[in-house]
């Protein structure tokens, strides 16, 4: 964390990132970062490193797929010139294939997902970029949606490797271990939107990736 000082950290994604954030985005609005992992990360950073000034921005929008990120990439990422960029996308790209199975126009298949993802990462000039895998809170790995979500997680990893950026596998590193001790419903009642426990687990994983020191 010693290298991060007065820099802009931007999180972009879907409803998991959004988490009911205040769209006005006024700097001192207490809910401008939402009520999930982005807010937790910001609070923990400021409480642990009070002398540093972290400019944390939340650009999550519920329901987004990789297509939606592409449409708003210039406005919500490139113009803000973040130093650290975290991207979490893919859940809706998979979910639309299950909750709207006959609406093929809403489906984002692997080739489009990886191709668009690569374009977005390659356009970005952030000093550090980290891709976060999509996840599904289902301990049964043979479940059809869990299997597809795991596949899109692997696709995300492949994009990170191709573009030489960081990757965090939230499914394997965060939620699979958590499901060994907690019932799935305690982490996310609908298997998609995490409880406060699930959001804190995401925050801990990201902070560990940033070499966060709890005893600073």
From TrEMBL:
Single GO MF annotation: hydrolase activity
Keywords: Hydrolase
CDD domains: SGNH_hydrolase_like_2
Residue ranges occupied by any SGNH hydrolase-type esterase domain in the UniProt entry: 11-199
InterPro entries for this protein: Ester_Hydrolysis_Enzymes, SGNH_hydro, SGNH_hydro_sf
Top-rank taxon: Bacteria
Protein's UniProt name: SGNH/GDSL hydrolase family protein
